[in-house]
Design brief:
By secondary structure, the chain is α/β, with parallel strands linked by helices. The protein is about 50% helix and about 10% strand.
């Protein structure tokens, strides 16, 4: 017996969409006039947001709420309206601690590890960030791949907006 499935055009589009997690640095870069290149690339990414399934987390919400500049906080809050919000759970927290333990992220910057852990646990394909100091760097990418492989998690591509727009592999 042959069973035929009819797939709608909407489903076809969604099947091909890459799941992308935005950390707070991407959202804040939309409004950072001191960094015009970052602002430009972030705006370009936002023009193509419809081509991706976009996610943030409760960590991003917390970081936005803690932003001291009230106008920036309002702008970022408006920008994230309607985005899918992922929660940190025990698995993500444990995995984040593993990233710190193996040296991917300094312990002092544990929230950066939370972004990576949340994205990994929720099977996100790409974590997008402008944080070159702790996240978008070779050492972090390699250790995250190792820790994820050791624990049975998929590869998480860590990229900056220009990398995803150019279709670069990490």
């Amino acid at each position: 017996m042959i069973v035929h499935f009819k797939i709608s055009q909407t489903m076809k589009r969604d099947i091909r969409k890459i799941r992308v997690y935005l950390d707070t640095s991407v959202i804040s870069a939309l409004f950072d006039e001191k960094s015009p290149e970052m602002m430009y690339w972030t705006q370009e990414f936002c023009k193509s947001k419809k081509d991706f399934n976009i996610f943030i987390s409760d960590v991003v919400l917390t970081e936005i709420q803690e932003t001291p500049d009230s106008q920036l906080r309002r702008n970022m809050s408006k920008e994230i309206e309607g985005m899918n919000v992922l929660e940190i759970d025990e698995k993500a927290e444990w995995l984040s601690n593993e990233y710190v333990r193996y040296g991917a992220i300094p312990g002092k910057y544990r929230r950066d590890a939370f972004h990576i852990g949340i994205a990994t646990i929720h099977q996100i394909e790409v974590l997008l960030s402008w944080n070159y100091r702790h996240i978008v760097r070779r050492k972090t990418r390699e250790i995250v791949r190792m820790v994820n492989a050791l624990n049975g998690y998929a590869i998480l591509d860590i990229m900056s907006p220009p990398e995803i727009l150019r279709g670069e592999e990490t």
